[in-house]
Write a structure and sequence with these properties.
There is one protein chain. The chain is built from 10 helices and 16 strands. The chain is α/β, with parallel strands linked by helices and 358 residues long. Helix 3 crosses helix 4. The longest helix has 15 residues. The protein is globular.
């Protein structure tokens, strides 16, 4: 077995308590690798664990963080070919051998491992994970897009999750995609839908984020503070009529992870629409489920993204079809508690990537 690597990580000990730094030593077992973390993105889910009491599968204390990129620093037996390579770690790692995995449903694998939920996550200098499913990163293509290896950590989840949602929903050229909540995951959902040929409508309450996504992907931006649900639907209908776009079969991506956003997304259903629930909230909403029947519509949940889809999603970034650099910003990992507070207070305009000082 390779010698242990001396490392450090920030652990969650209790809800609403500061994360605590601790030292640890780690080495990979057979089929595993140790990745020196280049960056780990701060996701809405991490905030849910720390501030809202969303339960983690692994009992506390636990290191959070599931958007991770880095370089393989040590490899166990059978994984030696990964040594030294730049990689993105999938946010959800299915086992690959169970019945659901073999039948093409890795998202519901009951043996899956999610860093920062099932196993210790990426707010650390190093992390040990299974080698199976790692996504290699061609570093020669990063500089051309003004990106570092740490920046592309957000491909795990923030990019790949909406990528799978767009793929599942069947977004095609000429279709209309409506994204509710365009911070983080929603911003990439808008860009991916546009890359698939859709005309994108973006809805949010933050004018700065709406301006940014208007430049990057959306043909129509609407501030939900300025329109009620009836007004939003009317504006979208007018826009579609003026542009010769379909008034039916819209694809609606709920990415806000808020009760208000979910209410809005469901209220925008039209004939033949597809509702994709990408964001998460513990809040409950009241709705008339029969609208799905009346509109002959469908609703799709979306948990993570299978590792085999990661290379295609990463290619959209490295080919320039998804703009990443202007939507992320790096912070030192040692400032994690401060950055979490800023993110929770909605004071960050870009997705934070925490970078350890090796």
């Amino acid at each position: 077995m390779p010698h242990g690597i001396e490392a450090h990580r920030w652990i969650m000990t209790a809800v609403n308590q500061p994360l605590v730094r601790e030292a640890f030593s780690t080495a990979p077992a057979e089929g595993e690798v140790v990745v020196a973390v280049a960056g780990c993105g701060v996701c809405h889910t991490d905030l849910g664990y720390l501030y809202d009491g969303v339960r983690t599968n692994h009992p506390l204390p636990l290191t959070l963080g599931h958007e991770i990129s880095g370089r393989v620093a040590a490899a166990g037996a059978g994984a030696e070919s990964w040594l030294g390579r730049a990689v993105i770690i999938p946010a959800v790692l299915p086992c690959g051998v169970c019945d659901t995995c073999r039948r093409g449903r890795p998202n519901i694998c009951r043996k899956q491992a999610m860093p920062g939920n099932d196993i210790h996550g990426g707010f650390a200098s190093h992390i040990v994970v299974p080698a199976r499913g790692l996504c290699p990163v061609d570093e020669s293509r990063l500089a051309h897009r003004r990106l570092t290896l740490g920046d592309v950590s957000v491909v795990a989840d923030a990019v790949t999750t909406p990528y799978q949602a767009v793929l599942r929903a069947g977004v095609t050229p000429g279709s209309v995609a409506i994204v509710v909540g365009i911070g983080g995951v929603g911003g990439y959902a808008a860009q991916i839908a546009r890359a698939f040929g859709a005309t994108v409508v973006a809805i949010d309450v933050d004018p700065v984020k709406l301006d940014a996504i208007g430049r990057a992907a959306a043909s129509l931006t609407l501030n939900a503070r300025e329109h009620d649900l009836r007004g939003l639907k009317a504006k979208i209908g007018e826009f579609c009529k003026a542009g010769g776009l379909p008034l039916t079969e819209w694809t609606i991506f709920e990415c806000s992870g808020t009760a208000a956003g979910q209410t809005t997304a469901f209220g925008l259903l039209t004939y033949g629409a597809t509702l994709c629930v990408v964001g998460f909230t513990m809040d409950r909403i009241e709705l008339r489920l029969s609208n799905l029947m009346a509109f002959d519509a469908r609703a799709l949940g979306n948990w993570g993204c299978p590792p085999e889809l990661y290379p295609a999603a990463l290619d959209l970034v490295l080919d320039g079809r998804i703009e990443l650099a202007s939507f992320v910003e790096q912070h030192p990992l040692d400032r994690i508690n401060e950055v979490f507070e800023l993110a929770q207070a909605h004071k960050l305009t870009r997705r934070a990537v925490l970078v350890p000082q090796q």
